Amino acid sequence: MAKVIAFSIFKGGTGKTTSAVNTAAALAELDKRVLLVDLDQQASSTRYVGIDPNQVNPAFYHVFLKQTPASVVLRQTAFGFDILPASSLLAAIEESLEPGDEVLLRNILKPLQDEYDYILVDTPPGKAGLAFNGIVAADLLLVPASAERMAIDGVSDLINHVQSIIWNKYRNELSQQEIRILFTMYKAGTSHSPGIVQATRRIYGGNVLDILIPETVEFPRSFDHNKPITHLVPRHAAAEAYRSVARWIVNHA
Ligand SMILES: Nc1ncnc2c1ncn2[C@@H]1O[C@H](COP(=O)(O)OP(=O)(O)OP(=O)(O)O)[C@@H](O)[C@H]1O
Ligand SMILES: [Mg+2]
User: What pLDDT does residue 7 have?
Assistant: First the structure.
C-alpha cells in the first residue's frame, strides 16, 4: 500500500512544488515506485518535469469529475517517477467542489496504492478545495516552510486548521495522520534562518525535521531546465538535502 505524502501549507511560494518534485526524484533514485500528483492549476510540478499542461488531455479533471481511470492520465517522467499532470481544467474542479468533497482525492488514489510505494501530492496555496483534498488524502503532511520571518505564522495557520477542523471532520480516516515541518530556503551563515528554525522547534519540537534545504539559485535553475536538482547538479548540497528527505521518508516507514 502506497504511503500518501502531501506537501501542504496555505502560504504561497514556500517550496511545496520544489520539495514535491525533488523528493519524488530522490525516492526514485532509491528504486521506489513513486507517483507525483499535481493538484495546482498553476501546474508548476507538471511544467517542472517538462510536460506542457496545455497538451495534457485527458487530464486530471477527467479523473476527478468524469470517472476516467487515473491510469489513463498518468505519464512517465524522465526521472524514474510517474506524474498525474495538472491542466488548466483544475480550475473547473475547484469551481465544482462542495463541502464534503474533500475526500474525493483520497478515494481516487485508493486503486493506485498497490502500484506505488509513495504517492506525493503537490497542493496549491490558499484554503482551496483541492488543497483540502490533498490534505485529507495524506498519511503524512510535509509542511515546507521557508526559513524567513513569517514562517511560523504560515506553519501554525496550517497546523491549527488541520488539527482543529480537518481532524475533527475526518476523525476515522485521519486518526493516523502525521505532520512534519521541512525548512526550505535556509540561509546558513546568517543568524536569521537558524533563529527561525529554533523558534519553530520550541513550538513544534520533534515535528520539525532536522534536514534543512539550503537556499540556492540551483532550484530556480532546475525548474528552468526541467530537471530535478538530483539530475541537474547531482553532487550539490541541495541535491543531497532532498536525498536526506527521501531516506528519512523510507526509514520513517
Ligand atoms: N531552497 C530554495 N532555494 C532557493 N529558491 C528556492 C528554494 N526552494 C524553492 N525555491 C524557489 O522559490 C520559488 C517558489 O518555490 P515553489 O514553487 O516550490 O513554492 P510553492 O510553495 O510551490 O509555491 P506556490 O504556493 O505558488 O505553489 C520558485 O522560484 C523556486 O525555484
Ligand atoms: Mg507550488
Answer: 98
Buried b (16+ CB within 10 A) or exposed e, 82-113: bbbbbbebbeebbeebeeebbebbbebbeebe
Is the C-beta atom of 177 inside 6 A of ligand 1? no
**How far lies 19's CA from each of 166, 183, 211, in Å?**
23, 10, 12
Whether the ω angle into residue 234 lies within 30 degrees of 0, i.e. cis, is no
Residue 17 Cβ < 6 Å to ligand 1: yes
Predicted confidence (pLDDT) per residue in 16-66, tens digit: 999 999 999 999 999 999 999 999 999 999 999 999 999 998 888 888 888
Choosing from 14, 17, 233 the residue with most ligand 1 atoms within 8 A of its CB, the one to mutate for a pocket test is 17
Distance 184 CA to ligand 2 centre (A): 13
Q: Is the CB of 213 under 6 A from ligand 1?
A: yes
> How many Å lie between the centroid of ligand 1 and the Cα of residue 100?
30
Distance CA(205)–CA(62), nearest Å, equals 41
Tally Cβ neighbours within 10 Å of residue 204.
18
- Distance between alpha carbon 88 and the CA centroid of its chain, in Å? 19
- Output the nine-digit C-alpha cell for 181: 515541518
* Closest atom, ligand 1, to C-alpha of 40: 27
Query: In this structure, what C-alpha cell is assigned to residue 141?
Result: 503532511
**Is the CB of residue 215 below 6 angstroms from any atom belonging to ligand 1?**
yes
Task: Tell me the C-alpha distance between 127 and 224, whole Å.
Answer: 28
Listed in sequence order, the residues at least 6 apart from 1 whose beta carbon sits closer than 8 Å to its beta carbon are: 113, 114
